[in-house]
Amino acid sequence: MTEPAQPENKAQFIGVALVSFAALLLELSLTRLFSVVLFYHFAFLAISIALLGFGAGGVFAFVRRRWLAQWSTAVVASASCLLGSLLVVLALFVVLHSRITLELSGANFAKLTLLYLTCAAPFLFCGVLLSTAFARSVSAIPRLYGADLTGGAVACLLTVPALNWLGAPNAILAAALALTVSVGIWSETAGWRNTSAALSVGFVALLVLNSHGAVFDVIYAKGAYRDKAFTEFAKWNAISRVEVVNVNGLRSVVIDADASTYIPTIEPEHFHGTFWEQHDSSAVPLLVNALRPHGDFAIIGPGGGEDILRAVAAGSKNVTAAEINSTIANDIMRGRCAEISLHLYDRPEAHIHVSDGRSFVRQSRDAYDVVQMTLVDTWASTAAGAFALSENNLYTVEAFREYFDHLKPDGILAITRWEFKSPREALRLVSNAIAVLQDIGASDVTRHFIVISDGPLDEDGKAVLVLAKKTPFTPDEEQTTLRHLEQFKSVALIYSPSDRTRLAGVHPTDPSRPGNAFAALIESRNPVGFARLYEYNVSPVTDDAPFFFFTLKLRHLISHSALEKGLDWKVNLGVLVLLILLGISLVAVLAFLLLPLVLHAPARGESPWRLLYFVSIGLGYIMVEIALIQRFVLFLGHPIYALTVVVFLMLLFSGIGSLASRKWLPDPRRVWLAALIIGALVVAYVVALPLLLPRFLGIVFPLKLLASLLLLAPLGLVMGIPFPTGLRAIAPQFEPGTDVNGRPVSSRKRIEWAWALNAASTVLGSVIAMIIAIQFGLKATLFSGALFYLIAAGLSRSFSRRT
Q1: How far is CA 497 from CA 411, 434, 467, 557, 566, in A?
Q2: Per-residue pLDDT reduced to its tens digit, 318-339
Q3: Count of H helices and E strands in the chain?
Q4: What whole-number distance in Å separates Cα of residue 230 and Cα of residue 701?
Q5: Which of 81, 499, 655, 765 gives the lowest tally of CB atoms within 10 Å of its CB?
Q6: What is the pTM of this model?
């Protein structure tokens, strides 16, 4: 049976755009839901799931095209949208009811497999629809591809508002609603339209009913049951799910069911001698308040306000704080819990800004006595990947340079981190600070540090405070430190400039010898050389590879002891998940994309060079996109903003480029020219972005959006050309045969295969891009993307030899 050709009409372009909108809204919302219900490493699965589903749909449409040929495109599209919308609801139910822990067990593997396949099913039907529409409308490919990318771009534009207003579960239901509406757009009969209308009304009612989590809400998170009896308040936004939890009268703000911060319930005037002074998380960071009791403070990530409380209680009259999460700052600390915290955020000494830390510091024109961060984690990240988007660029050498630039001449950088028996995180802070101090001209860095902890480093989970001063610590400041240790008996001195006895037995260039790792690192004056010999990678971290929490060395990946359940088990597991995901992606691509094509007889005669072209541009596109997203995290202030803005601009302008591709390249065999231009532009971005973005980091957010537009539009335009032009190049001439309406059609279509291989390459490329970024940095990732476009330019020469 031959395939029915697709007559052109406006409805098909609207239908393609709406399906693309629904699919990308679902994908982005799943990243937010996964980072709460599962662990932030698994947020990366949403991208892999979506790409695999699309590719599998293309393969199905190719292999079963004769079976699909008995129905018109309208029927195929309507049925695909209907089934896809119902499967979205099933996927949401499975995600919320999956109790997945960090244990590497068979039960967890089975649950993850079920979750993976269930969530991939809606994307599969979207892939069937889109690849079928493309294959049956070869002449309209540029406009269809433009509609596809435009729909995705609109989804990126609306994702942040949808997550803020609806929350992740309802945003996913909104994606299902969009699919049911598209049933009516594609349909040609009253029956389909009536079904679309009835289901749409039902989904709207479900959205209203679920506005407060009445039907779909978080049941299990991070492998544990979430008991609502302790939850006084819960709210989703684009960057987190924030709860106020009350346990025995002690309230804390919980972010993504993981990171938490206490809400103090005492006036600063009554602080001393109370629980809020004595408990572990205060005793260590309080030292900087003792050293600068009346100083001007800049606090990054104040959360529930403990740092603010300590500063005001010590005597500071000027405490400026940058809190990135507006729900914490406005809805909780200035709203629901304002009276509970005794209006801590509204005190005259406190000046609260809703902003990310780096942008706040860059924009500030003030100089401070102290820049402070206390246990600011990214485990509750909105990560769109294991390590992709999981870092927030607060812990890089460039960030430390900015902190030091905003300190007064004798100012102190005070950062508290959780530490381990074998130090690594706080130790890496010291490495960053050494690099910056040496860069700004410190002659002897050994006198610029004081390090304390909440006890000897004989077990994991101790809070360690690293104080790095622009000028050497004075004897009086060291005496103040000793008095602080006398007051808080649990606090231990790890390093002080005059405490030379702690260096006994430590070789400055051989940290493998027993002794104090902090003293050895500081005395070595060579953080890179120290890290080369040390058990963990504690070398300085830069914005090009901002993976501060990734301290494992290659040998750790095959060592069970390094991956055991310690305090950084979640970080270590991220490495394992990334590698496992690469294996799963390879198996999935082989099982669902390549083998069906290889075993399908009509596919075996196709030229491999032409199809490898689509693999190359798929790898190139996803590598460039992921590297740009990570690069713009710092500039735009948060991973979710980088994700939505970069993907929105890339899809929008790639869509425009697709629409213009037929005019710009009427001969598809000259697509090599576009691939060469893309390669050259990407190389130019490698050089230009690190120079341009930091210069504009301090501008207001609307201007950042405009700058992002100006930077990404040219690249996006050209990157929209190779795929639709390549499809035009491989589209065969019409052969004898007619469809159900008597129109001539091709008996051998290659479009679905190209679509599937392009999707397969993006599944693998998304993982490979992060592996390259972790090992070699973002510049290397962009270079790799440029290389694949250059390879595609060479492969496109096979288009001139058409059969």
Answers
A1: 17, 14, 12, 36, 31
A2: 999 999 889 999 999 999 999 9
A3: 28, 14
A4: 37
A5: 499
A6: 0.83
